[in-house]
C-alpha cells in the first residue's frame, strides 16, 4: 500500500522545493515555444513556460537559502534593471529559425530507437548463460507528498525500488521510469537514473527517485513502470509494472498548479531568456550572464514585485545569489521585462548551473511564482568564475546530466564509460 505524507507547514514545503533537482524529463509539450542560438560572442536561449516534472534524489540535503550562510566563499558582481527586450517578439524571431520543441518520449519510441541504433551487446555473458533473471527488481514502494488543498490528490511522489541479483556478485545497473494516467495506453518517460551498484540480494542498495509534478498533470489516478538495465547492455533485464506490484498503481496525483490553498496568485513568469558571455579560455564555460524575464499579472491594477535569484549544480541544494530592485508589472505588457546580470569572480567552478526565479510581492511579501524547470533557459547553463576562465587554466568540465532527447537524468557518455572501467576494476579487486 502506498503511503501518504502531508506537509503541515510552509517551511516543510520550502525545504522540499529547495531540494528539487532538474534531472527531470519534460512531459508532453504541445504548443510550447523553445529557441536557442549560438554565435562567436554570445549564446542565447529563450522559452515560454513548459510542462515539466522535477526529479531529485531523496537523500540530497537542503543547503543555504536566503539569509543563511554558506561554507563556500563566492564573490560576484550583480546588477538588475528594467530591460529593453521584448521577449514576445524575440521568441517569434527564434521560431522563424525552425528550432524544434522538446517533445515527450514514450516507452515504445525509446524501445524502437534503442533497437535501431544501439551498438551495445544485448545482454551480458551471465544473462546469456542464466537468463535475464540474474538481475531483477525485488520490490517497490511509492510515497505521496504535498496535498496542500486537501482534495486527496498529491503533487509530489517518491518511488523507492530495490534491485537484487541471483548471484553473490557486484553489478552496475540503471533504470528508466515511466508514468501514465490510468486508462492511457502509452507510457511516458520521465526519468533515467544514474548508474548505481548493487550486490547480491542485499537490501541496503535501495534507490529512490522523488518527483514534483509542475504542470501538465490534471487531477487523476496515475501509475508508474520501471525498466531495469545492466550497464553496458541494451536489453531490458527486468520490468516492474502495476500488475506486478500494486504499489505502482492508482496513485492520486495532480500537478502543483492544481494545489490551491485558498490563496491564488494571478502574477507569474511568462517568458525567460538567458544570455552568456565571455569565455576567455574557450572551454565552453562562461563567466558572465544575463537573465531576462517577463512577469505578467491578471490583476487589473499594476503590481510591485521583486525577484530572488538562486543557483545550484548537480541537482544539489539551492544557493541564494541576489535580489532585484522593486519593479512594476503592468498586466500582460511585453514592455515591462526585467533583467539580472551577473559576473562571477570566484567560488564557482566550471559546471552546468540551474537557476531559480522567485517572484515576491513587494508590499505583502507573498510568493507569487517560483520557477526553474518550467523554463529550459534556466537549466544546465555552462558557467565558471573569472579565476577559472583563464588561458593557462586546465579545466576538467563535468558532463551534463540532462539529455534533451529523453529528457532524463542519465549520466553523460564519457562518465558512463569511466564508471564502467572503475566498476570492472572494483569487481576484479573484490574477487
From TrEMBL:
Residues 104-126, 385-408 are annotated as: Disordered. Residues 109-119 have a biased composition (Basic and acidic residues). This is GlyGly-CTERM sorting domain-containing protein. Keywords: Signal. NCBIfam families: GlyGly_CTERM, Sden1266_dom. It comes from the Bacteria. InterPro entries: GlyGly_CTERM (IPR020008). Residues 1-24 form the signal peptide.
